[in-house]
Amino acid sequence: MKGRNKIYTPLLLSIACAIGLILGARLDFDPSDELFSANPKKQKLNRLIDYIDYEYVDDVNTDSIVDVTVNKILENLDPHSVYIPKDEYARVTENMKGDFVGIGVSFYKVQDTIVVIKALEGGPSEKIGIRGGDRILYANGQKLFDREISDDSITTQLKGKANTKVTLKVLRKGIEDLLTFKLKRGIVPLKSVSASYMLTEDLGYIKIDRFSETTFKEFSQAIKDLKKQGAKQIALDLRSNPGGYLSEAINIADEFIKDDKLILFTKNKSGAIEETYAQREGSFENGKVFVLMNENSASASEVVAGALQDNDVGTIVGRRSYGKGLVQREMELGDGSAVRLTIARYYTPTGRSIQKPYDNGNESYFNDYMRRYKNGELNNEDSIEVNDSLRYITPKGKVVYGGGGIIPDIFVPKDTDSEKEKLTFLLRGGYMSRFVFDILEKNREYYNSISKNVFREEIVITEEMIDDFDTYLRSANIGMERTSEERKPLLKKYLKAEIAQQLFGTNAFERYLNEDDRIIKKVIELSKEK
């Protein structure tokens, strides 16, 4: 019995510390609130933490214990209530904010030198003429090369407060003397709309990667530009979009749904319902819209798709979405960290919850993809499991189901070619990026000078490049077999798409990838139907 007590004591202490931290934090409540200031449980736990800090025989890193235990506590709530440690909070916030302050470059460290991959669109570096391949050697006279300096430290030196001045000394291939660039740090967009262009004469395409603070603004500009080019129909690509700010999704849904129609409603633990309706004349209420979804489209993506589907607007094309119908609120914990806590469930206009079950624990929940894969639903629409008790009817009589994701109106199976899937993973995961960067570095002056049209017509991925890529993967210990003859055309396409991304940005990248995309082919086919 004594042995068991020794095992359990650290865990109990950890849990107690974490509960005390959470209860003692503000959590969006006034600290003078009676519930928290006079709560005897809070006082007891705070006292325990003090005892451990000041009286316990050994030194204890209570910060690390609390971090681990907070995660454990949240795991017992639901899969989407999460803890954001202090050292990650700024990065997470920046990613969702939609911009950051800095000089606006992406870079690699090559032999201890900062080499620009690309000047980011709309940032200070792009405006002043910094290019891919430039070596940044000095910032305000401070040497940045031949030093043991981390990427984070470099980023800190290149970022700073808005409108602060920085002088860069840059080495450019083909030019003997260092170039001097004087610029002000400014706002650099982190775009969430990664592509917008015309698929056909009247079908425009918009891809949204996530819903950040600037998504609706980016989307509105994309719609405006596409309408000028003759778009009467829109393909809205939300595939693999994990979600983000609910307000941005609501604004985008409002662009397609007529006034006073319900977009969604939320319900909290007390049963209070908050309804959200379309409030303004949208820019595409009379146009035709197709929403592209897959098994990785979640949360805010599902809000948009569910709102349109339940209002009999547009057509959902692809595969059943992820199934996240929980609403989180971010609450600071007073020490620079935060908790993203589930505070409500959201429901589509017909009243269905699309949250998939999580009763069997987080591991089972996050492994749901494999269950779907094994039961065949990614390849066969008839294998999608539905619950007749969660059957709903839209105003025009369409049958829809709750209980886990948005089921598309038009099903398109997943490509089950495992070798293609591996190559796609390498591309989307950034594993091709460094290899392509090295290709460009061999003839940087030429690549930086060519136009998109010349690139499309003249740039060819050679057999030698394919062989070099296979060698590169082996040297990086990435478990891929040598590229088969059958897969070489796909790899050539992917490598050219990655080159396009580094030279011209994400719009060019997505255009190359979408050329033979089976879901986009289906959307184009549907768009031609009367």
UniProtKB/TrEMBL annotation:
Domain (PDZ): residue spans on this chain: 89-159
Pfam families, per database record: PDZ_2, Peptidase_S41
A molecular function GO annotation: endopeptidase activity
InterPro entries to which the protein is assigned, alphabetical: ClpP/crotonase-like_dom_sf (IPR029045), PDZ (IPR001478), PDZ_sf (IPR036034), Peptidase_S41A (IPR004447), Tail-specific_protease (IPR005151)
GO terms, biological process: proteolysis; signal transduction
Gene Ontology cellular component list: outer membrane-bounded periplasmic space
Alphabetically ordered keywords of this record: Hydrolase, Protease, Serine protease
PROSITE patterns: PDZ, PROKAR_LIPOPROTEIN
UniProt cross-references to NCBIfam families, sorted A to Z: prc (TIGR00225)
Family: Belongs to the peptidase S41A family.
Listed name of the protein: S41 family peptidase
Species of provenance: Christiangramia sediminis
